[in-house]
Amino acid sequence: MKQDLLTFADWTPEAMENLLQLAIEIKQAPASYSNVLAGKSVVALFEKPSLRTRVSFDIGINKLGGHMVYLDVQSGKLAGREDSVDTAANIACWADAIVARVFSHDTLTTFANAANIPVVNALCDKYHPCQGLADYITMFERFGKTKGLTMAYVGDGNNVTHSLLIVGALLGCNQVVITPQGHEADASVVAHAKTLAAQTGASIVESTELNAAKGADVIYTDTWLSMGDETPLATIKEKFMPYQVNEALMESSGARYVMHCQPAHRDLEITGSLIDSDKSLLMQQAENRMHGQNAILTQLLSA
């Protein structure tokens, strides 16, 4: 029976830990996995532009011995030509998996229901599971563990926040989510993450106050303005500038490292000097996107 990866919300702590360890093993011994996708083709269907997601999947699939076909839905004039259910069913006639970066999570569920091949969520409006996995790989490499650590997310409650909550809860990493009022993470996702955290002993705290980050091991932030959001920057800055991740916040919280999924807007949500400092894990996160995704594809396609 085929397995999709639209979110980690239905995973167990054991399965999550095993996937993280597989990703680390693939990173450390890539030659051992150089043929797991031999003879297989993956279609990457993108409704939204990308740097890290596209390049990391393309090169990663090649390193596993597979072949990627990239479909830019907008530039390729595919948008609106046919129903999503037919797009997915047709791709499944030729490909071994679909990697989709889309606007709506509903599109992914349509693909998953229509295609008899695995569908991987490369980003949607609700989740970003590949990013979440890469981030906890990075934490594990730096600290030698995830369980018992604390990540403080500062900024807009969004798809990245949701996946950080879910994956962190499964791996036993305490979560502090600090957002301006009105920009909280989705309440249903937070509630589900808390049920997962109860299994691993992790805690989840929500706040609008920056002092809630005190004691965190890592501070995490993301862009204030999501792709496609046309809210004027001046309006965004007025609400979010007090939540900028900067050297003062790092010092007051005591955090050792800063993380950001990128693209980063220097001197908006995070200072450029912090990005370039020895506290920054941004490029390690970016590298680990490939290794995490390779672990996902290996698990879904090599059985």
Automatic annotation (TrEMBL):
EC number per UniProt: 2.1.3.3
GO terms of biological process kind: citrulline biosynthetic process; L-arginine biosynthetic process via ornithine
Keywords, sorted A to Z: Transferase
Full protein name: Ornithine carbamoyltransferase
NCBIfam families given in the database record: orni_carb_tr, PRK00779.1, PRK14805.1
Organism of derivation: Alteromonas profundi
Keyword Transit peptide part of the UniProt annotation: no
EC supergroup of this enzyme: transferase
Family the UniProt entry places it in: Belongs to the aspartate/ornithine carbamoyltransferase superfamily. OTCase family.
Limits of the Aspartate/ornithine carbamoyltransferase Asp/Orn-binding domain: 147-298
Pfam families: OTCace, OTCace_N
Catalysis: reaction(s): carbamoyl phosphate + L-ornithine = L-citrulline + phosphate + H(+)
Gene3D superfamilies: Aspartate/ornithine carbamoyltransferase
Ranges for domain Aspartate/ornithine carbamoyltransferase carbamoyl-P binding: 4-141
Gene Ontology terms for molecular function: amino acid binding; ornithine carbamoyltransferase activity
